[in-house]
Amino acid sequence: MNNASPGSANGRPQVAFDRERVEALLEQLERMAAGERTKLPLSPARDTLDAIAFAVNVIEDELQWTNTRIAEAERKRAEEMVFAKERAERANEAKSVFLRTASHEFRTPIAAILGRWTRRGRTQRWQRRTAMSHRYRRPRAGLV
Question: Cα angle at 17 between 14 and 18, to 5 degrees?
């Protein structure tokens, strides 16, 4: 007792479609797959092909919306990366300026102290402490 029509498969009635309409929809799908922004046309028949075309159109809309959000997120991330790079470059320049200034600020007094130490070591008063003078002068000479 099979109620299916004579051309049925698996006990279900076989649906017949207009060959030209199917080919037109496949052609549109190929264009969409190639990247063309288009919609599949819906017919007045409102049959199974229309349901499929409608679903494909909804999916295409969702993909466009998602692609737009991804592009916006990538643009925003690129802007943040440029900002972070500029900030890092400014911080590096500030560090370099600080180190140049700090180096000068430390070297000047140390050079003066070592210069005085050397002059004192040459006077008679400090001759007896020459051994101690040499002991301190050698390690500090590397600081200047």
Answer: 155
| Complete DSSP assignment for 35-101 | T----PPPPTT--HHHHHHHHHHHHHHHHHHHHHHHHHHHHHHHHHHHHHHHHHHHHHHHHHHHHHH
- Let me know: does 110 contact 144? Beta carbons within 8 Å: yes
Contact criterion met (CB below 8 Å) for 121 and 133 = yes
pTM of the model: 0.49
- In degrees rounded to 5, what are phi and psi of residue 9? -125, 135
Mean pLDDT by 10 residues, the chain (144 residues): 47 72 88 84 81 89 94 97 97 90 76 70 58 58 54
pLDDT digits (tens, 9 = 90+) for 29-43: 888 888 888 888 887
